[in-house]
Specification:
The complex is a heterodimer of chains A (250) and B (187).
Chain A: H1 2-32, H2 41-52, H3 55-88, H4 90-105, H5 108-118, H6 124-146, H7 150-158, H8 163-201, H9 207-216, H10 220-248
Helix pairs in contact in A: 2-10, 3-4, 3-6, 3-8, 4-6, 5-6, 5-8, 6-8, 8-9, 8-10, 9-10
Chain B: E1 2-11, E2 14-24, E3 29-33, H1 40-48, E4 55-59, E5 66-69, H2 81-86, H3 92-101, H4 117-130, E6 135-139, H5 147-160, E7 165-169, H6 173-176, E8 182-185
Parallel strand pairs in B: 3-7, 3-8, 5-6, 6-7
Antiparallel strand pairs in B: 1-2, 1-4
Helix pairs in contact in B: 3-4
Classes of the chains: A mainly alpha (250), B alpha/beta (187).
């Protein structure tokens, strides 16, 4: 009963916060008074519902989703693999450290522009998503290995545990503790940067391309509707990933 | 047989062991006594191969199945008590028997973080014994246990290790004296 009441209270509070910000948006739109600059929430929601009724919308969202998810998965796997390589070899680590720092510090727009000359536009969002997540996973994977409980490692040494067993039961939980939050943060980053890459690269069937088109034709409700769509998918993915990770963590 | 030959060991310039030599026979129980900081744990770590001496050496036969009960329990938090005791040995029957004898049978499926300090201690002892080692190094093994459990646990350890090499660091040698073949003062 207490938990039910608590949940209800939490939902009511979240709804209150959402209502407050919708009101702020509505007031701002009224203050500006120009739909081309800032459309009110109701217009944007109506536009989103209208877009959702078309096959093109789902094709666009699906293609963007797959591109970014593929890039994210590739970047995460690469970050993990390079993290392990850097742990095993000091030379690899020294070679990779400045590269990862540069990748993290470089503005995403610079990468997108560079890739416009180097890659096909369908692949640019994939590569950008991968570039966003790779250094994050790399750094956290290494940190997880370094923060592994020395006491347990010593125990593993004295008890002559196999390398495989130590990786699974000693290093694994430590790396997981650092990897999982990075995976969630990386997903948000990859999603946002991937859509930004689509805006500039404008591949066929892309949310970013639709945003660009809406901007060109001064379709503010459409632009905001696509933005809302990006936000909702990002939140849904993050929630899904967090739940998945919580489940894996037991 | 484990043999320490003229060992020096210091930490951050502070000498802990100086010209230490001793032979630990394969069938004897040795109690290491001495004040805190005398170097008992350091000696156990050297014997376990976790530290290297600054000077001198340690002779160990090979192969040698050596296990250690650390001062901290060092149980794997993601595994159950039974899995912690078995580790890679696959000796489930032995593990269950040791848990039963140490009053931990009911905790076999629990995770270490649900155990009391004394239970963790006993699980760590069971883990070391389950491997049926040739050499057992014990660092204050019965600390944190009540008197009855201290007696029972000590009896089990030395019964399981009868005829094998045990090196036990303790602040309370009087409680373990009856099991010792020799008592070595460190420091």
């Amino acid at each position: 009963m207490g938990t039910e009441a608590g949940k209800l209270k939490k939902t009511a509070a979240a709804a209150g916060v959402a209502a407050f910000w919708l009101l702020v948006w509505q007031l701002l739109a009224m203050l500006i008074g120009k739909d081309v600059v800032l459309s009110p929430p109701l217009t944007v929601f109506r536009t989103l519902v209208r877009l959702m009724g078309t096959g093109e919308f789902w094709l666009t969202v699906g293609a963007t989703f797959l591109r970014i998810l593929f890039g994210y998965g590739f970047g995460a796997a690469l970050g993990l693999g390079l993290g392990l390589a850097a742990w095993k070899s000091g030379i690899v680590r020294r070679l990779l450290a400045p590269f990862m720092s540069v990748v993290r510090a470089t503005p995403v727009a610079s990468f997108i522009i560079l890739l416009l000359f180097l890659a096909r536009n369908q692949w640019i969002p994939v590569l950008i998503a991968a570039l966003m997540v790779m250094p994050l996973i790399w750094a956290n994977c290494l940190k997880g290995i370094e923060e592994t409980d020395r006491g347990l490692l010593e125990m593993g040494q004295v008890f002559e545990l196999s390398r495989r067993w130590q990786i699974r039961h000693i290093y694994g939980p430590s790396v997981r503790a650092f990897f999982l939050p990075a995976a969630v943060t990386g997903l948000g980053l990859a999603w946002k940067a991937g859509v930004a890459a689509e805006v500039l690269a404008a591949p066929e069937h892309s949310v970013g391309g639709m945003l660009y088109r809406a901007k060109i034709y001064l379709e503010n409700p459409e632009m905001l509707a696509w933005t809302l769509c990006v936000i909702l998918i990002s939140l849904a993915l993050e929630t899904l990933l967090k739940r998945l990770l919580q489940k894996t963590n037991g | 047989m484990l043999q320490c030959v003229d060992i020096d060991k210091s930490y951050e310039g502070k000498p802990v062991l100086r010209s230490f030599s001793h032979t630990f026979a394969p069938d004897r129980t040795t109690l290491l006594t001495g004040p805190s900081g005398a170097g008992k744990t350091t000696l156990l770590r050297l014997l376990a191969g976790l530290e290297t001496p600054d000077r001198g050496g340690i002779l160990r036969p090979s192969p040698l199945r050596l296990r250690m009960v650390f001062q901290e329990d060092r149980l794997l938090p993601g595994l159950t008590v039974l899995q912690n005791v078995m580790l890679e040995t696959g000796r489930e029957e032995t593990a269950r028997r040791l848990l039963r004898e140490l009053d931990l049978e009911a905790e076999a499926a629990s995770r270490p973080d649900t155990l009391s300090g004394g239970m963790k201690r006993r699980a760590a002892i069971a883990r070391a014994l389950c491997a049926e080692p040739d050499v057992l190094l014990l660092d204050e093994p019965i600390n944190g246990l009540d008197e009855a459990l201290r007696r029972r646990t000590a009896a089990l350890i030395f019964r399981e290790m009868r005829g094998k090499c045990v090196v036990c660091a303790t602040h309370y040698p009087e409680e373990l004296r009856e099991y010792a073949d020799e008592i070595t003062e460190i420091g």
